[in-house]
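Checked the freezer inventory, then went back to the computational side. Two predictions to log before the end of the day. The first one is the construct we discussed on Monday; recording sequence and tokens without edits.
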Amino acid sequence: MAYLKLKKKSLQHNYQFIAKHLDKEGIEWGVVSKLLCGNKTYLQELINLGVKEIHDSRISNLKTVKKMDPSLQTVYIKPPAKKAIKNVVAYADVSFNTELETIRLLSEEAKRQDKLHKIIIMIEMGDLREGVLGDQLVGFYGKIFELPNITVVGLGTNLNCLYGVMPSQDKLIQLSLYKQLIEAKFDRKIEWVSGGTSVVFPLLLNKQLPRGINHFRIGEMLYFGNNLFTDKQVRGMKSDVFTLHAQIIELIEKPKVPTGELATNPSGDEFQINEDDYGKTSYRAILDLGLLDISTDFLIPMDKAIKVTGASSDMIVIDLGSTKRNYKVGDWVKFKLKYMGALGLLNSNYIDKIVE
């Protein structure tokens, strides 16, 4: 069976790198754990780092976190569904919100549970996912700040999550100005301007982050060490926190061109023949996982000679070229991963998860 390995030392290294830069600027932050899909072994590794705040988009994952360490502050990072209100109040200390009716329900439930529920109002800054429109913010806040058992601890935004709109100094300054406007209008203190995410971190490294941004939520950068502006590794960070290990279950020299009448395969793809490949052969290996677990678009072979040529639901085919490079059946092939690939593997019950 294929397995996913978390390298503890690389995770620790990346955490310390991020903490060093944020602590230097006096910026509070939390770790986004949604990639881990509630895996207790991996969540424990986060907790062992000394994390004080964990963010997730699945309330069941936050429930797991609270059971593992009740002292951690948990943050639910999407507007709650009505049917989830009770559990959001029970297991999330903070939630992202954009709908007045939802906040009223949170207020009522928090009163029933005798809790003070914190909220971050998300503001639309151009990427058109969740967020209150800026020109409606004052009226929106005016209707919620006196609700019982609710306190607004921050204003936030998400960028690059839907249409790929990138953060800029102008957008983040505007977010900070919204905080100043609310505080002046209502004479209320708002603790956080939560504009920081993995995609914003390069602005901090380049000393371009507006001073008003004082809260970050970091996920992808922690696990992959990548700069989302350049799609390259951040100097000083590790890219091997997660590696996939897949076993070869067949290795045979075969023709490079299929024979017979071609039609679309079960994935809806239609193979295009390269006429230069007629009469040629290569060593083709089959790995013991498939599209049910991960899209081949998210695989990065650690052996540069390997080419991923296709996949079905439960098998991935790789091309080893004209030489099998000493590979044999039973050998393990290693891959680094893109974010969505790791997410698929972590959500798969068919992939073992281990810690190095």
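The second is the one RB wanted added to the comparison set:
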Amino acid sequence: MKDFMFIYQGGDPDWATKSTPDEMAAIMGQWQAWMEKLAASDQLVTGGSPLHFSGKRMDPNKVVTDIAAAELKELVSGYSIIRAETMEEALQIANECPIFLSPGVSLEVREVVQMGNC
């Protein structure tokens, strides 16, 4: 088995304040059910965490800038790590991810490279 990182991008930075408690509970319930299903099949390495939409970027010259709102659709908003045999299997798992319940999102799937003992 290989580990794959699901990198969640985009979304509405104000969804938590715009959603009613019932809407938020429904969405979180779907995330919980999806992660429980993955855990039961030993495919969940870590559920990861959502990331705050604001942040800073540092370039090689150590210049710090705010992350621009114009880049919101490309902004990483969270991650999870799952276990699958192949990229194709990881994509099948991604196909059922609740992230797609939100508008303006994408999901990037990347294999985690296992480094040798250094």
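For RB: The longest helix spans residues 21-40. The chain has one domain: 2-111. Let me know if you want it refolded.
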